[in-house]
Give the backbone structure.
Amino acid sequence: MDNAGTTAPVGEVPEDANQHCPGTEAETAGKASACEGCPNQQICATAPKGPDPDLAAIEERMSSVKHKVLVLSGKGGVGKSTFAAQLSFALAGQEKQVGLLDIDICGPSIPKMLGLEGQEIHQSNLGWSPVYVEDNLGVMSIGFMLPDPDEAVIWRGPRKNGLIKQFVKDVDWGDLDYLVVDAPPGTSDEHISIMQYLKATNVDGAIIVTTPQEVSLIDVRKEINFCKKVGIRVLGVVENMSELQQQIEMFYGGAGGAEKMCRQMRVPFLGRVPLDPQLGKAADEGRSCFEDAKCVASSTALKSIIKRVLLATEKNG
Ligand SMILES: Nc1ncnc2c1ncn2[C@@H]1O[C@H](COP(=O)(O)OP(=O)(O)OP(=O)(O)O)[C@@H](O)[C@H]1O
Ligand code: SF4
């Protein structure tokens, strides 16, 4: 799809005034104007309480999105963005209308993984227009706003929160079957923000990506507990890079750790994706692995996982 159909490029994200407050002892503590946009508001004792006036606009915007799925991981580098990108390609390949939202503000890799590096966001009278891979696959990421992809984004929580709010309130997604949200690793400001904004809008749930290593699984347990705490359903866990194609177990402990952990934590196990250099190559080149015969090992595994995701979400209506 031609992305140039709209008007002026969106400029730099405006500076958020509230970068100063480390916690409840700030001199501005509790003043509504100073606290606006701060992701700590839900947990801050001195934050002014009251409904966020933007929530109604977010609900309105999200009312045209049928299913919302978050892709999370405890640790970085486990393949979460790769999974989110391939999930989006797969859903779009099934004629679904798909939006992929990258809220990894400090490390946006989605533009590269979708082959959209160097693209810019445009604005129309309906809001920010996503960048389109295909007519039915639109993408939004801070990566489109950075003049240099190597530039480091060093933002405090309130400013990240402000941008995430804009992503769910101001992006003209249109009617979507699926909005896939790629979050940064861990449970940080971005997670609190997205949960806060999407919770009221019927999120289907979260998919958690991990590797079989125990250090990764420890963080997955935290991630599952975080989801339970904020009331987001865990659709299931994906064990990525689970084995070498030659059946060599790379990680101490080998494959299967995630499935055992899922039984203990009583969450669904969605399946394993093998370590497949062809999948890494497809991700680096911004391509769908489903259209590459060389990716047969990983794409077969991904297809059966995505089938389970579809079953779990479509049961929701
Ligand atoms: N199954 C796999 N086989 C081979 N390479 C993979 C596989 N999954 C992911 N990779 C590669 O591993 C690297 C890390 O993946 P990715 O960026 O998706 O991880 P991430 O969890 O999103 O990381 P972060 O959130 O820290 O940016 C990428 O180069 C990707 O191509
Ligand atoms: S809500 Fe945020 S800005 Fe307001 S007092 Fe608490 S920590 Fe500071």
User: Anything to note?
Assistant: The domain at 55-314 is CATH 3.40.50.300 (Rossmann fold). Residues 73, 76-82, 104, 107, 109, 184-185, 240-241, 273, 275-277, 279-280, 283-284, 298 surround adenosine-5'-triphosphate (ligand 1) (CB under 6 Å). DSSP finds ten helices and ten strands in the chain.
